Amino acid sequence: MPKPKLVVLSGAGISAESGIPTFRDANGLWEGHDVMEVASPQGWHSNPELVLEFYNQRRKAAINATPNRGHEILAELEQWYDVTVITQNVDNLHEKAGSSQVIHLHGELFKSRSTLDESLIYQMSGWELNLGDYCEKGSQLRPNIVWFGEEVPLMDDAIQLSKKAEIFIVVGTSLVVYPAAGLLNIIGPEVPKYIIDPKMPSISSMPNLFLVEKIGSAGLTEVKELLLQSYGS
Ligand code: NAD
Q1: Ligand 1 center to 137 CA (angstroms)
Q2: Is 106 a catalytic residue?
Q3: Is residue 93 within 8 Å of residue 86, measured between CB atoms?
Q4: What are phi and psi of 110, to 5 degrees?
Q5: Backbone angles phi and psi of 123, in degrees to 5
Q6: Which of 54, 181, 217, 223 has the most C-beta neighbours closer than 10 Å?
Q7: What tens digit of pLDDT does each residue of 29-56 get?
Q8: Beta-carbon count within 10 A of 139 CB
């Protein structure tokens, strides 16, 4: 028997308990910066040094971060389910916890990419990327992050996967960043949808919706128990 397909959409909130701050909670400022200044193509063109430094600091903060109970539970659920995590997070805590299928919709903090040829992507070993760091074709490297206003190349994969979900979990996202937030609306009416967030985002009513107003670790502990109680029935 194939394992039931469980799809998770995670956001910055799941990493909050690992000490990585979300940004909506800080009045839309990300570590004191307007997001358009540090996470948009315009920001990059006007001040690449600031953008590189911003992501250097995010990497420095994330490099020693460890997954929390929420990340661990999602990895454990692979014993019973075919789990795919679609994450808006750029940190690598799902992988560190052991999740084997992770789609990074908004890119990855620990990868850099060429500004000339976006197929040239490099794994980073440390936390620093600076002006003068070049790709193999001699062009400046930038963070491999999908910035506001840029295409989300993995969105189609995320849509196809979500359409096949038999269970859908949303955890730690304010559901305001599109197109990721729209995934919830394409899930079939018969599919159980669990939304976990300590400050529940506003969601239009839909069938089989379960709101769990808790932080990630506590909410996922509850949802795991519920899932295993009804597993196979
Ligand atoms: P967001 O900052 O817009 O929203 C965070 C959500 O997490 C809020 O709804 C908040 O109530 C909830 N939250 C706060 N503490 C929580 C906890 N302990 N457990 C569970 N939920 C908690 O985040 P978003 O929706 O992911 O969108 C923000 C964008 O910013 C993403 O595109 C992402 O790429 C980027 N970002 C990433 C990281 C990261 O990689 N860890 C961190 C900050 C921002």
Answers
A1: 35
A2: yes
A3: no
A4: -95, 25
A5: -75, 135
A6: 223
A7: 667 788 899 999 999 999 999 999 999 9
A8: 13
